[in-house]
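Handoff note, outgoing to incoming analyst
You'll be picking up this chain. Sequence as last confirmed:
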Amino acid sequence: MWVRRRSKEGRDGRGTAVADRRIWEEDPLTVEALPDSRVPSPRSRSFFQREGVVALVFLLPFLVLFLVFRVWPILQAVDLSFDNIESIGQGEFVGLENYRDLAADDRFLAALQNNTVYTVGTLLLLIPIPLVLAAFLHSGRVKAPDAFRTILFLPLLAGLVVVAVVFQLLLNANGILNRGLGAIGLPAPEWLETPALAIPSLIILALWRWTGINIIYFTTGLGNIPTDLYEAAAIDGASGIRRFFHISVPLLKPIILFVSVLTLIGGFQLFTEPYVLYASTAGSGPNRGALSMVVLLYRTAFTSFRLGYASAMGVVLALIVVAVSAVQLRLFRYRDVD
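Most recent structure output, in case you need it:
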């Protein structure tokens, strides 16, 4: 706001009174506010100098892209889910018929079950294992922890297609993994031919690929915890395990929630891994053992060209992810209140 600085000298060298200067600054020690009638009105500023307009101008490119490439496709998918479209062209409105068909579709129910098992498996492995490894690397008992973090992070740099092809070679009936198991006298299962082993194979792939990045997340969170808390607990006689469960884990709840939501979304968006790993069956695996919802959606839309039915699958998938994410947020908030 406009303020008046008080002159520290009442008169200059010639005995003339020094006039107060109007300046655009704020000095609480030597200034006093001008009367409200003399403060410039925001309306006197130009249109593009207003804070709200400036913020909107900078946000406008993002908002346009978000509306065009995110919001509009979602609205179009919801609209298509109520139509029966057998090919590219005008569809016929059928109401909730696509959703009723989904409830009785064996393929969709099998894909939903596979996605659920895969997501639960990755949640049970990709949170505790990276958390324990991050705590161990952060404890100071490991020499050159940065080197270990770098090595564990390297799998993330490889593309999903490359990773799936490599695991296809590893999990083959005559692959390296089965040869190693046979060398030590253990049975060599048919990983890619057994329906019951399809989801475990995908979980192993996910564990190898995503453990490193989750370790980075947890290590960053551990680095932000004050060391005074650990020192005070050690003085009180708390062991390393007690300090981990009573200090590290509670203070890492925001990071754990973040990793959980990412793992949940990634679990229900499973596509590339089964589609490449089980390329001979178009991503469904033996007896639909690896069929995921996104693979089924892709095949329905771009192989069978049932766009309305595929849109209904996408809407149901989105609702499932939003609902489960909301439950996760609610549970973490409830625990924080307790």
